[in-house]
Amino acid sequence: MAECSLCLPGVRHPGARRGGAAGFIPMSSITISRPVAMLCLASSMALVGSYVALSKPLAATFPVLLLAWLRFGIGGVAMLGWLKRPPEEEVMSGQTRRLLFLESFLGNFLFTLCMITGVSLTNALTAGVVMAAIPAVIALLSWGFLHERISPRTWGAIGCAVLGIALLAMAGHGGEGSASVAGGADDGSGGRALLGKALLLAAVVCEAAYSVIGKKLTGKLSAKRITALINLWGFALSTPFGLYFALRFDFGAVSPGVWVLLLFYALAACMWTVWLWMTGLKVIPAAQGGVFTVMLPISAAAVGVLVLDETLNGMQMLALGVAVLGMLLATLPTRWLRVR
User: Fold this and answer.
1) CA distances, 310 to each of 8, 105, 164, 304, 306 (Å)
2) Do 308 and 123 form a contact (C-beta atoms < 8 A)?
3) Which regions in the chain score pLDDT beneath 50?
4) Is residue 86 within 8 Å of residue 26, measured between CB atoms?
5) Which of 10, 14, 9 is nearest to 223 (CA)?
6) CB within 8 A of 274, min separation 6: which ones?
7) Which of 335, 336, 326, 295 is nearest to 153 (CA)?
8) Where would one find the signal peptide in this protein (predicted)?
């Protein structure tokens, strides 16, 4: 979200959330209509689901650490203008700098490595269902570290997240780990799929930790600057590994289509999702905006089936449905119909 990320109510947008509630990205003064704002929010989360799914073919081309380095680098160039401190913003304290580093280490660097590797070992649907647990895990961490109260409905969402992941485990590993076992060798594919799910779950915990830490930064920095600074730290952390693999990688063998996909992945993760999310939140209250996070697992599954030729069995479809229900329970405002 994850990634240069998103933000999710209690939910950071895997991009805007990387700014948390710390501020918002200044947009045009032109007022957009409510339907357009809703479309922006839905598109933002649909993009998140799509780039999570499309990281699988990228991971089949580039070493994971090289891919992460390239993504942070492309995002960094695109966000150079976001690094400058606005005149009205205070100079960062030592604590703020430490929190920013921790945000980047967990929410960008480790999240990216766990997410990309996890998707490469499983499939897009699995990634979507596991990522749907983000709101529930955020609630758990907020309860454990910030002592926030968890409502019965949120406990229901947590139960749905656990059930969805359990259903995936029961569904077996058909279609998972295919990139690793191309050519018909199935030995060890079950173990790789299990490792992939564990890494995806680790990515969820990293994303949730990012969101909880982000609450400590509220009001200190703008969302744009937090996003750019965290991406810069991610680039710095991945540079030693990226340079190592870059010196040994045959870039000439990469097709133009893969380069286009990499550019889409980097810009969608770092910028487009942020812009769309913040634009939508100018009109739609944040509590209602969280409902649109259901687009993440749906989009990931759709890309997996329509673009990556993955297949769904009955158990996987049930897991996806339970995951969507859990996200709705975690994010749907109690009185959303009365909010204008």
Assistant:
1) 27, 32, 19, 5, 8
2) yes
3) 1-29, 174-175, 177-187, 336-340
4) no
5) 14
6) 4, 7, 13, 15, 16, 18, 19, 25, 223, 224, 227
7) 326
8) none
Token pair 């921790």: residue: 102
Largest CA distance in the chain: 60
Rounded to the nearest 5°, which phi and psi values hold at 57?
Answer: -65, -30
What dihedral angle (degrees, nearest 10) is formed by the CA atoms of 305, 45, 136, 143?
Answer: 160
Predicted confidence at residue 5, as pLDDT, reads: 42
- The pLDDT score that the predictor gives to residue 219 is 63
Q: What ranges in 8-93 are assigned the alpha helix state H? A: 34-61, 64-78
Report the C-alpha gap between 16 and 1 in whole angstroms: 9
pLDDT for residue 287 = 57
Q: Quote the pTM value.
A: 0.77
Q: Are 69 and 242 in contact (CB under 8 A)?
A: yes
138 to 26, 179, 212, 286: CA distances (angstroms): 27, 31, 7, 16
As to burial, measured by CB atoms within 10 angstroms (0-12 exposed, 13-18 middle, 19+ buried), residue 182 is: exposed
The secondary structure element, H or E, covering residue 305 is: helix 295-306
Q: Sign (positive/negative) of CA torsion 295, 298, 304, 309?
A: negative
- Helices vs strands, H then E, count in the chain: 14, 0
186 residue type, one letter: D
SS3 for 184? coil
**Which of 305, 307, 329 lies closest to 317, judged by CA?**
305
Radius of gyration of the chain from Cα atoms?
A: 19
